[in-house]
């Protein structure tokens, strides 16, 4: 499997960021990648360090312009994409959500990152923590991966869930 991990500088212009991400998907596909991983909140500036409700306006549903454009790019290029956005499930319920979009453009899985109590971080005020993380299982061809990004205090429980997915590779961040 060939994976393209994108690094990009995002600005406050959401449309330009979306277009830039789609160009990176096109480029990765042209170079033979099977999977493109976009940066967290690639479509906007990272805002979680600020406690200002105005940033809730950046949240989108999975049917919004960002994921719609990424799904179209994935389908056009026949490539899988992991795209993380600030997702609005409903009024007042927001998540830091990674979406696995397959080569047909379908969202096959959502991973909603769980944020800890975070003494020095404002993320606890922005994202919902009420749910336990569920690992994302990616299947591309014959390869199965488990993807978890969490600093969740229930990390061991999340790891066990990951192991139960019968995957060949498990990626979890490490504390310390």
Automatic annotation (TrEMBL):
Keyword annotations from UniProtKB, A to Z: Hydrolase
Domain CN hydrolase: 1-176
Organism, scientific name: Advenella kashmirensis (strain DSM 17095 / LMG 22695 / WT001)
Biological process terms in GO annotation: putrescine biosynthetic process from arginine
Alphabetized PROSITE patterns for the sequence: CN_HYDROLASE (PS50263)
Name under which the protein is recorded: Beta-ureidopropionase
Pfam families (alphabetical): CN_hydrolase
Record has Hydrolase as a keyword: yes
Bilayer-spanning residue ranges: none
Record has Amino-acid biosynthesis as a keyword: no
GO MF term list: N-carbamoylputrescine amidase activity
């Amino acid at each position: 499997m060939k994976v393209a991990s994108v690094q990009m500088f995002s600005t406050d212009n959401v449309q330009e960021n979306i277009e830039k991400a789609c160009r990176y998907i096109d480029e990765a596909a042209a170079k033979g990648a099977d999977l493109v991983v976009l940066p967290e909140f690639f479509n906007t500036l990272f805002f979680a360090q600020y406690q200002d409700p105005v940033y809730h306006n950046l949240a989108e549903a999975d049917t919004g312009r960002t994921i719609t454009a990424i799904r179209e790019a994935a389908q056009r290029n026949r490539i899988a994409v992991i795209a993380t956005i600030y997702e609005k499930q409903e009024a007042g319920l927001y998540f830091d959500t990674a979406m696995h979009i397959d080569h047909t453009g379908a969202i096959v899985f959502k991973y909603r990152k769980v944020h800890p109590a975070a003494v020095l971080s404002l993320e606890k005020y922005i994202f919902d923590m009420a749910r336990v993380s569920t690992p994302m299982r990616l299947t591309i061809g014959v390869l199965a991966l488990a993807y978890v990004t969490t600093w969740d205090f229930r990390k061991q429980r999340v790891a066990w869930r990951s192991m139960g997915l019968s995957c060949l590779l498990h990626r979890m961040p490490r504390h310390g």
